[in-house]
Specification:
The chain is built from 27 helices and 19 strands. It is elongated. Strands 1-2-3-7-6 form a five-stranded parallel beta sheet, sandwiched between helices. The chain has a five-stranded parallel beta sheet with strand order 9-10-11-13-12, sandwiched between helices. A five-stranded mixed beta sheet has the order 15-17-16-18-19. The relative contact order is 0.09. It folds into three domains: 297 residues, Thiamin diphosphate (ThDP)-binding fold, Pyr/PP domains (Rossmann fold), CATH 3.40.50.970; 187 residues, Rossmann fold; 130 residues, Rossmann fold (3-Layer(aba) Sandwich). By secondary structure, it is an alpha/beta fold. Strand 18, helix 25 and strand 19 form a beta-alpha-beta unit.
């Protein structure tokens, strides 16, 4: 017991020094959570000390990402980080940023900090583990997911929505520790919350255990009981004290989001029996005691890797393994055919393409936020069944009306590895999911967001359901590929591009209304152009007088407008993915944009701000810079000036005005 107490005290000092040197960070929560975290890492967590990415490792996810100093110190104890990393805490270019970032730091499982999302990502990791275990077997996939959360996490609805699904899906491999120190940045939690958390989680179907969060034996017993219950996720409520062990500031909200004052650190070290003059000190015996289990862990990981290598000698198993962890075999997909000239909503085309891809790609999983018929994901759900306690091989995730939890859970599934998740809803509700979209872009996760009903042409549902600013808002998120296909053929090619991506998320924006499938002679042009993000769909016979840039359903509108602009030389450029287009060579971009003195026109049923990137300061940007209205789609088109005749008239007027000038 003395050795453990000594270790905990030295780790507390290391945390205090780490935050103090940076003059920035969070101390109090890290000190209240350390007892649980230390026991978990030292005595329970299965990992490979030499390989942070070992597939069958237990996952530990710090949802309370502001406690990053705690995680970094633990990763130093494991051996994944060096003391230099702790000295560089929160410094530019270091491996120890202010909040954990999965792609930067070995041993960090998820990028956390925006509270609540870590809980949902942990749920996603547990989902992935269950799915893969059902398909690969217990010997290959058998690990736990641990999550450490705080009061702030459970005040965010995304955590509760994800927890409800975890209970519904009976994710027995998920264990969450709630560091209940009853303090947050602005003061005590009873100022803002009186939720009886144990009753809430029992209602969700979780096993709930309560312990003194500083009693090591009670913590160990609770972890053991959690792992013994394979039928329910477990919540361990640890009643703790903020800044536990601090000399005079124990329990103070002032310790939450700031370094402790130097004099408080010195006094605390003295109280803990440590030398106040020593900084960034860890006794060799503490490090040795922490790592005493590592030879066993190395042997366990090596045994698993040997077993897997032998299993892969079996061709049948190797084929199954490769279907999850190999390169997507798109050549095996039998894509659907679409009749040229037929009216097909791109959401309908997506449903057909999804079902075709799913046959050849067993790791394609996902669902809809209670919009399966509208998102055209019902066929996928019917074909593969809902994932649940009685059907672990189910590939359909019935998320219910939970856009934000859906998005964050999908991020966790992608972080785990082996599966390619998608989630679908209406484009207007991408606002509900946006924090998860942003976090997946930051983490470089190849998650597919599917957003149907992508414009005012939703019609009668009115402005509450008609996105206007949403297309451009998604284009503003760095590292996110936003695809807005013009027809069924572009939809299929966009889907191929999304599946090929391995380190970027995608948003696929689809129409409710039917749009004509492009003529057969244009299909090769489409298939060549979409991967480049933009291409000339229709060239002018000579020097263009008008160049129309369009995306989505407005490409067919541009073609109709061209018919009305008889006597004018018109080029039409389809831009299904700005991000891919802007990655092309300058020569290709110049070729497509055609800097030829023509009137440059943008056409999209959304906000126009941003299109000036292609049209310049003197171009004509036609779109919808207002909220919509409730009414039939054709009447709405006239209301906002998006009929072919209205657009043609505006172009002719702009040409007259330009000539007059």
């Amino acid at each position: 017991m003395m050795k453990t107490t000594q270790a905990i005290n030295e780790i507390k000092a290391l945390i205090m020094d780490t935050v103090r040197k940076a003059n920035s960070g969070h101390t109090g929560g890290a000190l209240s959570s350390i007892d649980f975290a230390y026991i978990l890492f030292k005595e329970v967590l299965n990992y490979d000390p030499d390989d942070p990415g070992w597939l069958n490792r237990d996952r530990f996810l710090l949802s309370a990402g502001h406690e990053s100093a705690l995680l970094y110190v633990l990763l130093y104890l494991v051996g994944y980080l060096e003391m230099e990393d702790l000295l560089d805490f929160r410094q530019l270019g270091s491996r120890t940023p202010g909040h954990p970032e999965a792609h930067l730091t070995p041993g960090v499982e998820a990028t956390t900090g925006p509270l609540g999302q870590g809980v949902a990502m942990a749920v996603g990791m547990a989902v992935a583990e269950e799915m893969l275990r059902a398909n690969l077997g217990d010997a290959v996939m058998d690990h736990a997911t641990y999550c450490l959360c705080g009061d702030g996490d459970l005040q965010e609805p995304v955590a509760l929505g994800a927890a409800a699904l975890a209970g519904h899906w009976r994710l027995g491999s998920l264990v969450m520790y709630y560091d209940c120190n009853e303090v947050q940045i602005s003061g005590r939690t009873d100022r803002v919350d009186s939720t009886i958390i144990d009753q809430v989680f029992k209602g969700f179907g979780w096993q709930v255990l309560e312990v003194d969060g500083h009693d090591h034996q009670a913590i160990s017993e609770a972890i053991s009981a959690s792992r013994g219950n394979t039928e329910q996720p477990s919540l361990i409520i640890g009643h703790t004290i903020m800044a536990h062990g601090a000399a005079t500031m124990e329990g103070s909200p002032d310790t939450h989001g700031a370094p402790l004052p130097p004099e408080e650190i010195a006094a605390t070290k003295s109280k803990l029996g440590l030398d106040p003059e020593k900084t960034f000190h860890l006794s060799p015996e503490v490090l040795d005691a922490f790592r005493q289990r590592q030879p066993e862990l190395r042997e366990q990981a090596a045994g698993w890797k040997t077993m897997l290598s032998k299993r892969q000698g079996d061709a049948e198993f190797k084929a199954v393994w490769d279907s999850y962890f190999g390169t997507a075999q798109l050549d095996a997909v039998e894509w659907p055919g679409f009749e040229p000239g037929a009216g097909v909503a791109t959401r309908k085309a997506f449903g057909m393409v999804l079902e075709a891809a799913a046959v050849a790609l067993p790791n394609l999983v996902g669902g809809s936020a209670d919009l399966e018929p509208s998102n055209n994901t019902a066929g996928f759900a019917n074909a593969y069944g809902d994932f649940g306690s009685g059907h672990r091989k189910g590939r359909s995730l019935a998320y219910g009306v939970r856009e934000f939890p859906m998005g964050a859970i999908n991020n966790g599934i992608a972080l785990h590895g082996g599966l390619r998740p998608f989630g679908a809803t209406f484009l207007v509700f991408s606002d509900y999911e946006r924090p998860a979209i942003r976090l997946r872009a930051l983490q470089r996760l190849p998650v597919m967001g599917v957003y149907t009903h992508d414009s005012i042409f939703v019609g009668e549902d009115g402005p509450t359901h008609q996105p206007t600013e949403h297309i451009m808002a998604l284009r503003q998120i760095p590292n996110l590929l936003v695809f807005r296909p013009a027809d069924a053929i572009e939809t299929q090619v966009c889907m191929e591009m999304i599946i090929r991506e391995t380190d970027r998320p995608s948003a696929l924006l689809l129409t409710r209304q039917a749009v004509p499938v492009m003529p057969l002679d244009l299909h090769p042009v489409v298939r060549d152009g979409v991967p480049r993000g933009g291409y000339v769909l229709q060239d002018s016979p000579g020097s263009a007088q008008v160049t129309i840039f369009a995306a989505g359903s407005e490409v067919s509108l541009a073609l109709a407008v061209c018919e009305l602009l008889d006597g004018l030389a018109v080029r039409i450029v389809s831009l299904p993915c700005w991000e891919l287009f802007l990655e092309q060579s300058p020569d290709y971009q110049r070729k497509i944009l055609g800097f030829d003195g023509s009137l440059r026109v943008s056409l999209e049923a959304g906000t126009t701000l941003g299109w000036e990137h292609f049209t310049g300061h003197d171009g004509l940007n036609i779109g919808v810079d207002r909220f919509g209205a409730s009414g039939p789609a054709k009447e709405l088109a006239a209301e906002v000036g998006l009929t072919d005749q209205q657009v043609a008239d505006r172009i002719r007027k702009a040409l007259r005005d330009s000539n007059a000038g």
